[in-house]
Amino acid sequence: MGRSSRSVWLKAVTDKNSMSRKLLTGQVVEEVSEEWKESVGKDLQQYKQGVVRILPEGWIYPGVSPFFLDKLQQFQFRTEDVVIMGYPKCGSTWVQETVWTMMNNPDLTNPHAEEGIWYRSLEISMDMLMDVVNFDELGMEPMIETLGKMCPGKSKEDGFALQMLEVLPGPRIMKCHYAFELMPPDFLDKNKVIYVLRNPKDTVVSFYHYLRLVRLYDYKGSFEKFVKEFINDQMLFGPYWPHVHQAWTRRSHPNLHIIFYEDLKADFMTQLHLLDKFLGTNLDTQQMQNVQHITAFTSMKSKGAPVNDTACFNQSVSEKEGGFFRKGVAGDWKNTLSPELNQEMDKWIKDNIGDIPIKWGDDEKHQKTHGNTNRK
């Protein structure tokens, strides 16, 4: 699909007078309501191509997202691919770096290791998250240059990630924030998937800082307002629980490994051994230690953001609150959530957690009762 056809397609999706349409996956795309724009949207920088809801789950995505979701249905995954998935700000970048190092740099000799992780391991949903028409003004010239080198003649308006992934040799390690039901139907049968889960209280704190940090979003609302919008399924990239449950219902699939952020923080080496078994990387003791060293929070923070530090980030927020890698701890919500917000989130978790056998209580440690999610 070239630039002109893409423009026609986007106009049909975002035209206020157009009828709702279906994705290739069967979900229905509608423009967000005026009420959402006035209550939530006013605190966010407006996407140039609008914001849509994808039903029935109600995903709140940039207006460009249906174009890339339909392209994703035609993308050819390979059996050697590894995809790291998770809701935004659940630790997927940490796991992405861990897996890339395990598979490409266990001896710490790979010359590409100093490049940003999003250049070495592409983010499938990046084109949707960042809205490609903003790339020029966000200072993403290195990504534009990389596309030109890897895919001569290809248009940046048709996205970066999927076009570059098409020409990358295997095994490809990629990340994705889309939920399972937005992926191709045979996706999990083809390749290995690692899904990252995190205490939603820590997720909402990290997500708030992230949307303030990234200049494209520039969230201006209060933290209390943000939490309420998050738990009421009104925040950009939500809702949270359908994303989690779509992974959890697939937990017995042999190609899926679910990993908890809290377990990684509590005992990284044990989780590394489980990943090693799942991926079949067969690392020795020294290589395991190398991976642990290179993926430690201090090591990753010292490298900087997953992309080159550019105009993409709000520098005043970065200096005051921390950059992309802010704290890297479990339980930081205790320093942020008020008693009232904590109580609201406790009820929200209790009402929605379903059969996920895990407790995220005030003083309780993460309970390792997930059984076959830690490798069958």
Topology:
Elements: H1 3-14, E1 21-22, E2 28-31, H2 34-39, E3 51-55, E4 59-62, H3 65-73, E5 82-85, H4 92-104, H5 117-120, H6 126-130, H7 141-150, H8 161-167, E6 173-176, H9 187-190, E7 192-197, H10 200-213, H11 223-231, H12 240-248, E8 256-260, H13 261-266, H14 268-279, H15 285-294, H16 297-303, H17 315-321, H18 339-352
Parallel strand pairs: 5-6, 5-7, 7-8
Antiparallel strand pairs: 1-2, 2-3, 3-4
Task: Supply database-style keywords.
42% helix; sulfotransferase activity; 376 residues; Sulfotransferase_dom; alpha/beta; 9% strand; transferase; Sulfotransferase domain-containing protein; Rossmann fold
Named CATH topology? Rossmann fold
The portion of residues assigned to helices is 40-55%
SSE pattern:
HEEHEEHEHHHHHEHEHHHEHHHHHH
Mean pLDDT across every amino acid position: 82
Q: What's the Cα radius of gyration?
A: 20 Å
Integer tally of domains: 1
CATH evolutionary superfamily: P-loop containing nucleotide triphosphate hydrolases
Strand order of the largest sheet: 1-2-3-4
Low-confidence stretches: 1-19, 361-372
Q: Which CATH architecture?
A: 3-Layer(aba) Sandwich
By helix and strand content, what is the structural category?
A: alpha/beta
Strand content range: 5-15%
CATH class: Alpha Beta
